[in-house]
């Protein structure tokens, strides 16, 4: 019996792709191996969002090959920079070809090598029509679309995922119902950009949320990242959908820069003022909003003044969490052709912003001390105790609790990255 192990890196959407491949391998008669060591083949489902990630992926593929494993590579790296993939691999599948995973193993078993890297124009399966391996747990990822409508000058992910393809609302709802019937308590809606969901099929994210929250049962919905330019198109409707108690009061809205000229060069098609307008409207109507944003520092053309504008924006808006990334040029992107900022300068800016984000996060989290919050228990925590998520998706470590339970807990301590609490 041929044994296959699938390892997925990067975003939650990749995790879902990995579970689809596992189900397809099982139905084709292959055995799933728990560890790479016990497998004949290892499927490396890659991420290529940043340069350091790409280096890590290439190293992992080499390590596995050197240890005598046969390796099949899929995921975004295949589209973004295939040159770094070791030629010894047994097969290469693009993100739109994961439904051919069993065929790739079979081809390799017969001494061949399946390479299928079609783009979204040639091949664009509806992944919600494919099977998925059900695992135990509290949270279940439901991809709602693939691809995006933006054309950011720094992004290589769109080479892999292509232009927006929204999945039918009835299929999304079907998967949510199935997950709830199997005991999952948290639904994570995933996409490259949830904000433009439905724009290609005459609907939107707010309408989808209304359909999901209308499903019977006590569960929570976490909405994935959404870009500001799309949110502006249906802001009031989206805020209304967020009023439902089943929706986590969690908003991941990447601004990327606090300077309008840098945003223009990034191809982001919204202004700093529009970003602030969205945040202001949400905060007015969604009490306790947990705002997460993303910043890229060291983008080509980012002057000291432009960086200072970013710092001022973060001080004004005070997000609960800021994901700070140093710009890294990705192959084939427009921004890679521009004059790059010295690495030391980007590192300096990154450190400064990192210190600021931790200080703000700590101050925000300290305000929770002494408060009673509702928590969905996820299970044993990596930091010890039991990990859970509050009504606004803040991580909290409790002294006890059963996975899947909704409990009331009192916050006793706070750090910059998580809360600590005790059951009431």
TrEMBL record:
Residues annotated as domain MTTase N-terminal: 2-110
PROSITE patterns given in the database record: MTTASE_N, MTTASE_RADICAL, RADICAL_SAM, TRAM
GO molecular function: 4 iron, 4 sulfur cluster binding; metal ion binding; tRNA (N(6)-L-threonylcarbamoyladenosine(37)-C(2))-methylthiotransferase activity
Comment on bound cofactor: Binds 1 or 2 [4Fe-4S] cluster. One cluster is coordinated with 3 cysteines and an exchangeable S-adenosyl-L-methionine.
Keywords from the UniProt entry: 4Fe-4S, Iron, Iron-sulfur, Metal-binding, S-adenosyl-L-methionine, Transferase, tRNA processing
Keyword Iron-sulfur set for record: yes
Catalytic reaction(s) noted: N(6)-L-threonylcarbamoyladenosine(37) in tRNA + (sulfur carrier)-SH + AH2 + 2 S-adenosyl-L-methionine = 2-methylsulfanyl-N(6)-L-threonylcarbamoyladenosine(37) in tRNA + (sulfur carrier)-H + 5'-deoxyadenosine + L-methionine + A + S-adenosyl-L-homocysteine + 2 H(+)
Cofactor: [4Fe-4S] cluster
Segments forming domain Radical SAM core: 134-363
Pfam family, one: TRAM
EC number of this enzyme: 2.8.4.5
Top enzyme class: transferase
Occurrences of domain TRAM (ranges): 366-424
Function in brief: Catalyzes the methylthiolation of N6-threonylcarbamoyladenosine (t(6)A), leading to the formation of 2-methylthio-N6-threonylcarbamoyladenosine (ms(2)t(6)A) at position 37 in tRNAs that read codons beginning with adenine.
Homology family: Belongs to the methylthiotransferase family. CDKAL1 subfamily.
Protein name: tRNA-t(6)A37 methylthiotransferase
Organism: Thermococcus eurythermalis
Origin organism lineage: Archaea, Methanobacteriati, Methanobacteriota, Thermococci, Thermococcales
